[in-house]
From TrEMBL:
Residues 73-167 form the Rieske domain. It holds the Pfam family Rieske. Keywords: 2Fe-2S, Disulfide bond, Iron, Iron-sulfur, Metal-binding. InterPro entries: Rieske_2Fe-2S, Rieske_2Fe-2S_sf, Rieske_Fe-S_prot. This is Cytochrome bc1 complex Rieske iron-sulfur subunit. It comes from the Bacteria. Iron-sulfur subunit of the cytochrome bc1 complex, an essential component of the respiratory electron transport chain required for ATP synthesis. The bc1 complex catalyzes the oxidation of menaquinol and the reduction of cytochrome c in the respiratory chain. The bc1 complex operates through a Q-cycle mechanism that couples electron transfer to generation of the proton gradient that drives ATP synthesis. CDD domains: Rieske.
């Protein structure tokens, strides 16, 4: 076909039901619809028709990489966070979760849920949960451990000096 791009033909249908095999092969409703049409005998989908199903699919999945954020500089006492626990603090208008996963090792995260911005709460020890839709995180490193959180909590810089922790 001189000068025209190759049409999406029935010879190469996308696999139907591939969504069950994980995020790497996730298929959106438009892709599934195109695959069903392409599988029908005698149906050839031209590119313009294939993209006109009326539903948009994200070009890329959301980032799953942990990010860093800052909050207004705030000082808290390290003694308030025993080893193996996490605690919530206010830093300006932000809410921060500070944890001590190992003796003398302090970590801090924004308490803003990476799903839709709920304020993550400390449930017990290092377990964090968002009250809005139930996403859970591990305060050891902020990783998301239960859906629907799409990525870990944002890291907040923290430094320790003389028993005082500076957040921000
Ligand atoms: S906003 Fe936190 S789970 Fe939805």
């Amino acid at each position: 076909m001189g000068g025209m791009s190759e049409p999406f033909s029935a010879a190469t249908p996308a696999p139907i039901g591939a969504a069950a095999s994980g995020p790497a092969t996730r298929v959106g409703p438009c892709t599934q619809r195109r695959a069903v049409l392409a599988a029908l005998p005698g149906i050839i989908l031209l590119p313009g028709i294939a993209s006109a199903c009326g539903m948009t699919e994200p070009a890329q999945p959301p980032s799953t990489v942990q990010q860093t954020t800052t909050v207004p500089a705030t000082t808290v006492s390290a003694a308030e966070i025993p080893v193996g626990t996490a605690k919530q603090f206010k830093a300006g208008d932000s809410t921060v979760i500070v944890a001590q996963p190992a003796e003398g090792e302090f970590v801090a995260y924004s308490a803003r849920c990476t799903h839709q911005g709920g304020v993550v709460q400390v449930i017990e020890g290092m377990t964090l949960r968002c009250p809005l839709h139930g996403a859970e995180y591990d305060a050891t490193d902020g990783r998301n451990t239960l859906a629907p959180a799409p990525r870990p909590l944002d890291v907040v810089p923290v430094s320790e000096s003389g028993g005082q922790l500076t957040l921000g």
